[in-house]
Design brief:
8 strands; protease; endopeptidase fold (from Nostoc punctiforme); 167 residues; two-stranded antiparallel sheet; Papain-like_cys_pep_sf; NLP_P60_dom; disordered N terminus
Length: 167
């Protein structure tokens, strides 16, 4: 089963390159248009980071150890969405201010395609956001006030509302 999965991912990556699809972009699936003229296409996402996501992750990680502060927008303290907003701005991407608004930007990504640089919105009320750093770790600003920001294991979170890919 593992070899089949590896070959499938390899074939999808080769198809992405052949189609000229950028890193982390959706690949439109081929579909019969039928008599109605609708394409019937579906987006397939691969676990490949976007350049913008990697740049944002790199920027966010320069803030390791700075204190969490609710409502913080930097540069000396951050809340979760303020850190994401600033980090993505370094990559030329303007994010809205709150995690609830950030949950609606970019492309929704399934957990199986999670890649470093994707943002993850946590809890049913979308009240927390972090950036996936790879190796099962999320880089995030997480309270209480004064707690140093840094890495939290992905499996620490009980509920993922959505995963978003930007750039």
């Amino acid at each position: 089963m593992h070899n089949i999965r590896r070959r499938l991912v390899g074939a999808l990556c080769a198809a992405a390159v052949a189609l000229g699809v950028g890193f982390g972009a959706g690949i439109p699936a081929l579909a019969d248009t039928g008599s109605s003229g609708s394409s019937g296409s579906v987006e397939i996402y691969l676990p490949i980071p976007t350049p913008a996501g990697m740049q944002a992750l790199s920027a966010a990680m320069t803030q390791v150890g700075r204190p969490y502060k609710w409502g913080g927008t930097g540069p000396w303290s951050w809340d979760c969405s303020g850190l994401m907003q600033w980090a993505f701005s370094t990559a030329g991407i303007r994010l809205p201010r709150t995690s609830q608004e950030q949950a609606r930007v970019g492309h929704a990504i399934p957990l199986s395609a999670l890649a470093p640089g994707d943002i993850i919105i946590f809890y049913r009320d979308a009240s927390h956001v972090g950036i996936y750093a790879g190796f099962g770790q999320v880089f995030n600003a997480y309270g209480p006030n004064g707690a140093p920001i840094g890495f939290t294991p992905l499996n620490h979170w009980s509920y993922i509302k959505t995963i978003r890919r930007l750039g």
